[in-house]
Amino acid sequence: DTVVEPYNATLSVHQLVENSDETFCIDNEALYDICFRTLKLSTPTYGDLNHLVSIVMSGITTCLRFPGQLNSDLRKLAVNMVPFPRL
After folding, report:
1. ∠ at Cα 60 (57, 63), nearest 5°?
2. pLDDT of 87 above 60
3. Residue 17 counted as domain residue
4. Residue 84: pLDDT above 60?
5. What letter does residue 61 receive in the DSSP assignment?
6. Any idea of the CA torsion for 27, 30, 32, 34, to the nearest 10 degrees?
7. In this structure, is residue 6 part of a structural domain?
8. Is residue 49 a contact partner of residue 35, using CB atoms and an 8 Å limit?
9. Looking at the 3D structure of the chain, how many domains does it have?
10. Positive or negative, the Cα torsion across 43, 45, 50, 55?
């Protein structure tokens, strides 16, 4: 974590909202907490954090990648994940 991390996150929100279809905000501290408490890792590395994020993103996009009754598309995924659309 760096001192400028909150500034980077805050200043990038406008560009992300305007130029991306979907954006997932991930809290590094929450990832560390999951690594410590749930995965019982004493010193998690960035590789561990990236692996955790990759598992989450894989789970989120499963309905897009595999056939089945619960298939969806990116539009439906975005609509169902946003409780209040941009006004």
Report:
1. 130
2. no
3. no
4. yes
5. T
6. -140
7. no
8. yes
9. 1
10. negative
